[in-house]
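Q: Could you fold this chain for me?
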Amino acid sequence: MASKRYKQLSEKIDAGKTYSIEEASAFISQLKSAKFDETVEIAMNLNVDPRHADQMIRGAIVLPNGTGKTVRVAVFAKGAKADEAKAAGADVVGTDDLVEQIQNGIFNFDVVVAAPDCMGLVGKIGRILGPKGMMPNPKTGTVTADVAQAVKNLQGGQVNYRVDKKGNIHAGVGKVSFAPEAIAENLRVFIASINRQKPASAKGRYIKNAALSLTMSPAIKFDLSSIADIR
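A: Sure. Below is the predicted structure, expressed as structure tokens.
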């Protein structure tokens, strides 16, 4: 059953209205009710079947205005690459010692980056990192020789996304404290990234539904025609 607060927020929304990016970005702050700085979240349902490899929508994009979230980065690297990761501001850098830390259940980080020559080590803990969504992957830029740039991207506002088995994608694209223009710019960059990945084999309307909400709020619906061609 919806709470009284949730019902009051829902009453502010015109159920028959759909919003452009600019309209949604300007309106979303009216749905703030929590005492903390709520995350602005986009939810999309795509007309894809992830069981087919060419329709598995997955990637990463650096939002121009960041996410408003502090991201702690662990890096598997050795030698000069380890030094580069540390200089770039990585929170944890290691090899065998980092494997042992993870095996012991110590996770003082949010995301994992690995230099290619360390993926053999990472493979030892794949069964631990995988279920947590932390397994490094070239498609998200977390397996790379340029570990310093990966650290900067992740700490500077990179969002990783992956479609689930029902075609849904969720991502945080800022904070309610952001200016509407900053939210709109982040949304355009994120949606453009999704649109660029439209599979040639996907038939019909690619984005079936899309909505914007806050951490503790009901959602408002996007006008699909206004976001379909953003590149």
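A (continued): The first helix runs from residue 4 to 10.
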